[in-house]
Each structure stands twice: as structure tokens, then as C-alpha cells.
Design goal:
The structure holds 2 protein chains of 2 kinds.
Chain A: H1 11-34, H2 63-72, E1 77-83, E2 91-97, E3 103-113, E4 119-129
Antiparallel strand pairs in A: 1-2, 1-4, 3-4
Chain B: H1 2-25, H2 34-41, E1 45-47, H3 48-51, E2 59-61, H4 62-71, H5 76-88, E3 93-99, E4 102-106, E5 115-122, E6 128-135
Antiparallel strand pairs in B: 1-2, 3-4, 3-6, 5-6
Classes of the chains: A alpha+beta, B alpha+beta.
Chain lengths: 130, 136
């Protein structure tokens, strides 16, 4: 590590610098590659209306849409939490497939029929496991 | 020395790139548009006895109960607080509604808002209720 009168170390300095640059670049690329899935949200095309949620006399729903959406987006699993804020403390959960992997969550608010002719906001929280 | 300086500049650029990447990967909950929420609010129908002391089970729009509650005792404010907290998060909204000369507020976020929407709805008991919603 002998420096010349300008403080340069010549070939040695160039090698050390290029190695450090390449190492950091490789780490960054590995980081991006391992998280590339996080950039595309699998719930982008999700249509909460297609679950055909019904909140009169308990909560009912249609499973086929959830299964077909899981297949279409090649998801490991999907979870739907339904709650009626202000009217019911309970949260109704629908879980299909596995609940592991990268999580993506979106909230939707639907106005649905409820007890005795009421039409109230229902919060639908959808979590996709990719 | 020049090569070291170049390497340092490159490392700073990479750090900025990592920061930007991590920011865009953050699992941000998409927050509902306040304008969309107000439009939905105008279609909510409840029983009059749900939020008032009146012994009347007739179906009414929530906006009618809100107009009634401006000058009368009712629990519609608590309901709206519960609903908005669930959708936008606690202390992240301010709902203001005006009926006649009276104003009512739900929420405690007065200082700064990211998005604001207004809606003017006719009320069945006469007049119009003006609702504004600010969210953080």
C-alpha cells in the first residue's frame, strides 16, 4: 500500500475499489431479486363484489371466486376478514389455502344489507399470501 | 485516490437506491378515498331507534339521523367515530357536518390533512346537510 506523491495507490487502489463496488452491487441486486414479488400487488384485480357476501342472518359468501382468483394469481392462500363496524364486534374470517409467504393486504368497504332492512358499511380486509 | 472517491460516490448512490426500493416495497395499506366514502355514507340506511331515544323503528338514511343529531341527543357520533376509526385509523380523520346553523364534529385531527372531500345531501326533514371529511 505505497502511495505516490499524488496519494494514489495505482493498480492496488483500483482493484480494491472495483471489488468493493462489485460486492455492494451484487448485494443490492440479490436484495432486489429476492423481493421482486413485492413490487406487483396480487390484489390489484381483486373484485370484492364477486365474493357475493351476504350479511343478513349471519355471513355467507361464494367460494368459487376466491379459488379461481387464487389459481389465476398463483397464490398460496387468501384470507378474507369481514366486520360490520358499529353493529357487530365479531370478525368473520374466511381462509383458503396456506397462510404463509409474502403478505399483501387491501381493505374494501361495501354497503350491504344487514338486519331488519338496514344497509350498513361492511369492512372487507383481504390478505393474499404469495 | 480518485478510484476510492468514485467507489464512495457509488456506495452513496446504492444506499439511496436501497432506500427508494425499501420505500416502494413498504406494505402500505391503501387508504380509501374520502370522496368515495362520503358517497357510500349517503346510502347507509339504519333504524331511527338505533341511534336516537325515539321509539320509532322506521328505516332512515344515516344523513337524516346526522341532521337530527346536530341539535338533539343521539349516539350517531359514536357510531361514526367507530366506523371511521376502523376504516381510516384512529386519530386520522375529521368529519364535520353542518345542518342549518349548527355544526358537529367527529374526530380530533384538526392540524393537517392529506385529502379532503365535501358532500351536500338533501335531508328528508327539510334542508340540506353539508358533510366534509378530512383524512391524514
Amino acid at each position: 500500500m505505497i502511495r505516490n506523491c499524488h496519494g494514489d495507490m495505482g493498480f492496488m487502489e483500483a482493484m480494491v475499489s472495483s471489488i468493493s463496488v462489485m460486492t455492494v452491487l451484487c448485494v443490492y441486486l440479490a436484495f432486489v431479486a429476492s423481493n421482486i414479488g413485492a413490487f406487483c400487488d396480487p390484489l390489484e384485480d381483486f373484485d370484492p363484489g364477486s365474493i357475493e357476501l351476504e350479511t343478513v342472518d349471519g355471513i355467507s359468501y361464494s367460494e368459487p371466486y376466491l379459488y379461481s382468483y387464487m389459481e389465476y394469481k398463483t397464490l398460496k392462500g387468501i384470507q378474507v376478514d369481514v366486520s360490520v363496524p358499529g353493529f357487530s364486534e365479531e370478525t368473520f374470517s374466511i381462509g383458503l389455502g396456506q397462510d404463509e409467504g409474502m403478505e399483501f393486504t387491501r381493505d374494501y368497504v361495501l354497503i350491504l344489507d344487514y338486519d331488519n332492512g338496514r344497509k350498513v358499511p361492511v369492512k372487507v380486509e383481504v390478505t393474499a399470501f404469495a | 485516490m480518485t478510484a476510492f472517491m468514485d467507489a464512495m460516490i457509488f456506495l452513496i448512490v446504492i444506499m439511496i437506491a436501497i432506500g427508494t426500493t425499501a420505500h416502494y416495497m413498504g406494505s402500505d395499506h391503501e387508504i380509501m378515498d374520502p370522496d368515495q366514502f362520503l358517497r357510500q355514507l349517503s346510502s347507509i340506511e339504519v333504524r331511527l331507534s338505533d341511534f336516537t331515544d325515539l321509539e320509532d323503528d322506521s328505516l332512515v338514511f344515516l344523513s337524516d339521523v346526522m341532521a337530527y343529531s346536530v341539535d338533539n341527543d343521539s349516539s350517531v357520533g359514536m357510531y361514526l367515530e367507530c366506523l371511521l376509526s376502523d376504516i381510516f385509523g384512529e386519530h386520522r380523520f375529521l368529519l364535520t357536518y353542518t345542518y342549518g346553523d349548527s355544526i358537529a364534529e367527529v374526530g380530533d385531527m384538526h392540524d393537517y390533512y392529506r385529502s379532503k372531500a365535501y358532500l351536500d345531501i338533501p335531508v328528508s326533514i327539510g334542508g340540506r346537510i353539508n358533510i366534509s371529511l378530512s383524512i391524514l
